[in-house]
Automatic annotation (TrEMBL):
<keyword id="KW-0472">Membrane</keyword>
<feature type="transmembrane region" description="Helical">
    <location>
        <begin position="6"/>
        <end position="28"/>
    </location>
</feature>
<keyword id="KW-1133">Transmembrane helix</keyword>
<feature type="transmembrane region" description="Helical">
    <location>
        <begin position="49"/>
        <end position="68"/>
    </location>
</feature>
<keyword id="KW-0812">Transmembrane</keyword>
<feature type="transmembrane region" description="Helical">
    <location>
        <begin position="74"/>
        <end position="98"/>
    </location>
</feature>
<protein>
    <recommendedName>
        <fullName>Integral membrane protein</fullName>
    </recommendedName>
</protein>
<feature type="transmembrane region" description="Helical">
    <location>
        <begin position="110"/>
        <end position="133"/>
    </location>
</feature>
Amino acid sequence: MLDNVHQIIAGVVLLSVVGIAYGGTFLLKVTRGSVPANELQQRFFRAGHAHAGVLVILGLLVLQLTQLNDVAPLWQALSLGVLAAAILMPGGFFLSVAGRDPQRPNRFIALLWTGAGLLVTGLAAAGTGLIAAGTG
């Protein structure tokens, strides 16, 4: 069972899926031509939407695995980087191509790389913590 803090985190994450679903309707509008977007924007919007959905699911799985297997608190805290990546990486994809007909990503692309770093950190922490809990 999740502790109270992790229950709240999981609840907020599940509610964020409403935003991801809305992103799907936006993506449909882009695909149908109702929302103007150049090729770069279309690719980044698709990537942002896909990363959001996958990383939310992965983040919830990591949250469960670390809580249910008595992973040390430090590893659990660091593993929340996966859920942070679920916000930052899609944000980087969407915000870096905002505007009318951008030809390349803007400085918000840094969110993507920050999220990627947190994703790797979170997964490494979860994996290390699970191995340590299993061998301890």
